[in-house]
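quick one, 207 residues, struct below
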Amino acid sequence: MKIVIANKSHTIYADIICKTIEDAAQVRGTGIAKRKPAYITTKIENGNAVIALDGDKFAGFCYIEAWGHGKFVANSGLIVHTNYRNLGLAKQIKQVIFKHSRTKFPTAKVFSITTGLAVMKLNSDLGYKPVTFSELTDDQSFWNGCKTCKNFDILTRTSQQMCLCTGMLFDPKNNNKEASKEVKENVFKKLKNLKQNLFLKKDKNVK
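---
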């Protein structure tokens, strides 16, 4: 298994990457924005992605997005093919893309929005901390990318202040790893309760 910074030779995997992301969204039943092969290809050609390969077989992927003129970057589209899950590959990919992000954008704040508890744990281990959406990028291009997510109506109703995703941030100016485990667990509990309430309200509206 190799995890490498993607280059033009890896654009042949763009279709399977998008298909794997779409399939994962359907299985999980959670909000995951769709990606198009052309967009993934651009990220690969610009050197803003990492890919995991088992020989010539696609195993996993993640890419970097820059927002607010490079003040913020996000590690997006983290995905592992179904044949390679439960092997710790997602954690390895996350570590490589995070290091690559810090190398290319050393002064940028690295952020993430996700509904996945596993991704939250990976982020926390790297030094991210839970934050409100107001502390993330105000670049509207980023939030427009949520339009293909099935929960976009919640984001719209709350004026982009909250959704079912949790916002997390790594600020290179702060030593986020010093945050106590107790504080992080309390924040996660509050966010979890908020999301449960949002789910209940959404179900009532559907009925």
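Helices lie at 14-28, 37-45, 89-104, 117-126, 140-144, 152-157, 181-206.
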